[in-house]
Amino acid sequence: MAGSGKTVVVGVTGGIAAYKTCELVRALVKGGHRVKVVMTEAATRFVSPLTFRTLSAEPVTVSMWADAPEATVHHVSLAEEADVMVIAPCTANVLAKLACGRADDMLTTTALATEAPLVIAPAMNVHMWRKDATRRNVSAMRGRGVAIVEPERGELACGDVGEGRLASVECILASVESELARVRDLVGRRILVTAGGTHEPIDPVRYIGNRSSGKTGFAIAEEAARRGARVFLVTGPTHLPDPFGCEVVRVTTALQMRAAVLARADAADAIVMSAAVADFRPAIAASDKIKKSQAPENIRLEPNPDILAELGQRRGTAVLVGFAAETSSVEANARAKLDAKGCDLIVANDVSDPSIGFGTDENSVLFVSREGTERSGVVSKRHIARLIVDRLSGFMSG
Ligand code: C5P
Fold it and tell me: Using a 6 Å CB cutoff, which residues line ligand 1?
């Protein structure tokens, strides 16, 4: 295959999954990339540098102190040469070092010095993966824009069963390719995204809410930011950390969401209403906690404003994207909503299928616009986010 002219620095750390990195290096070379491998000392206990040197046809670096093959400050030169750096497998230890910015060997020094996108594919024992310390390190890296290729569930080398197994070579490869291909088609655009569900208070401790996790909206916001947009994310309550590169406004109720959205709508080139805004709220929220003995017989509800419909009526120049969660006649209902709410695109999903949608990592949606209907197939919410942002970009330039 023709050379891509791209240099991929592959970092290998000391985990049993290091043998799979041989396949990754082969695939990258086959894909036309120049591959430079850097290993920790521990990684050399699992796979010999000679194996990687043979597969990549390039020198392999382990030590900071060996004679540098081509430059005097080799860690900096490797870091500068990289178009992307991928660390696979990444042990809990190296992840922790990266999260706190340590640079005590060639691999961590290169990772800290590079300005290229970083892809990390962790692999470790399930208990290590689940520990708070590791969770925090993963979110810290994600918060800095690092692409994390989540480990898979399955039988681990230690005999335990759970998540922690290195992701497949195909997944890691896809993430590397997507970093290399990342388009910056939204530079100069302002995009407003809403996410999550709203909480409508009954009293100071109770609320009416819904099952939206916010995952799709957060993924859309992050994807748009990575593609160069200035992104404002207005989100209802969720446990998700702030996505990379976005200005985040956290609200609780539909009325607060409306105020936050309307304050930013005029300046936006596109508005994506992925939030599951509550349609109703208790007409009166008690100011004190309602005692168990004083359970109200009923709670009177009143409608919330429909933020999307309001934006559709004001109809500025912004591209308007709405969502539809339907349990039947998905396409017909979505098409009706496209007109009723004055949107350019409705992203519709069938919420009657429990294996996709609310709270899960995968979904299958329909894109309903005046040009027609397209199906995403069952894919990750991150991938759906990419498809939505592709369409946004098309509407804005069209
Ligand atoms: O009418 P329905 O609630 O099914 O429409 C869903 C779309 O409308 C979503 O994009 C949602 O964010 C938006 N919406 C809104 N304000 C509401 C209810 C829904 O903006 N009160």
Answer: 254, 273, 275, 277, 279, 304, 306-308, 322-324, 337
- For range 114-123, the mean pLDDT: 95
Classified as helix, coil or strand, 297 is: coil
- Give per-residue pLDDT as tens, 32-45: 999 999 999 999 99
Rounded to the nearest angstrom, the distance between the alpha carbon of 308 and the centre of ligand 1 is: 6
- For domain 190-397, the CATH superfamily is CoaB-like (3.40.50.10300)
Active site residues: 210
Cα-to-centroid distance, 217 and ligand 1 (Å): 14
Query: Which residue of 199, 220, 256, 277 sits with most ligand 1 atoms within 8 Å of its CB, as the best mutation to test the pocket?
Result: 277
Find out if CATH 3.40.50.1950 is the number for domain 7-183: yes
Burial 358-372 (b: 16+ CB within 10 A, else e): beeeebbbbbbbeee
CA 276–ligand 1 middle distance (angstroms): 6
Closest CA to 17 of 141, 149, 131, 116: 149
Query: Which residues are bridge partners to 368 per DSSP?
Result: 346, 373
pTM above 0.70, yes or no: yes
Evaluate whether 280 touches 208 at the Cβ level (below 8 Å): yes
Q: Amino acid letter at 191?
A: I
